[in-house]
Amino acid sequence: xxxxxxxxxxxxxxxxxxxxxxxxxxxxxxxxxxxxxxxxxxxxxxxxxxxxxxxxxxxxxxxxxxxxxxxxxxxxxxxxxxxxxxxxxxxxxxxxxxxxxxxxxxxxxxxxxxxxxxxxxxxxxxxxxxxxxxxxxxxxxxxxxxxxxxxxxxxxxxxxxxxxxxxxxxxxxxxxxxxxxxxxxxxxxxxxxxxxxxxxxxxxxxxxxxxxxxxxxxxxxxxxxxxxxxxxxxxxxxxxxxxxxxxxxxxxx
Length: 253
Ligand SMILES: [Fe+2]
Prior knowledge:
The protein is 41% helix and 15% strand. It has a single domain, classed as TIM Barrel (Alpha-Beta Barrel). The protein is an alpha/beta fold. The protein has helices at residues 20-33, 53-69, 88-94, 119-128, 142-146, 148-156, 165-168, 174-185, 206-216, 219-233, and strands at residues 2-7, 35-40, 43-44, 75-78, 81-83, 105-109, 132-136, 160-164, 191-193. Helix 9 packs across helix 10 (219-233). The protein has a six-stranded parallel sheet with strand order 3-5-6-7-8-9. The structure holds fe (ii) ion (FE2). Fe (ii) ion (FE2) is lined by residues 6, 8, 81, 136, 195.
């Protein structure tokens, strides 16, 4: 059974599910994939969407009630996909930020233009506040693609990486697919999540991606990604032991 730690399933909050019906369809699809728990991670602080902690909590309650009524065996947990922005620390103090299922794990998204210079300071502040930053889809970030060592440094400083299943499957193009797989091979991936937005062109294919990775990376890596998702929602330490390929670093660039 699988846990999805990144999904835009809450209806009407962001660019994810557009209606309750679509959210229910996404949950049914997830259940068919073997997913029993989904962390709802609406965008927050990205300049277009603000979904503060309490709004997320209410929406999660409502969707869980609906799924229960319809006997759909999926549980929704609260979270956010928080964009790196200047006021993040103030908002954290004000209580508007929500970690993944209120654990130590904060799902953080870099701005679409790249990785800002102040990010190391921000990550340090988050670290001393006891949070572990999970970087959302680093494989889709232009700065990390150009300079993977920057990502490697952030992981060395304690950040975790969450790769999108559809990146693995090539939805965002060959370059991103290749980078995503290299991040898996080089032990810079800690978990895989769907980042599903809808049922049209951004639905979950978590189980498909795991099958693909089992074939192209290893069974052990996949097992670890799956276990790490469980450890995250239970606020346990995640496994980072090496199963990496012994090739020279970033030889694919
Ligand atoms: Fe997302």
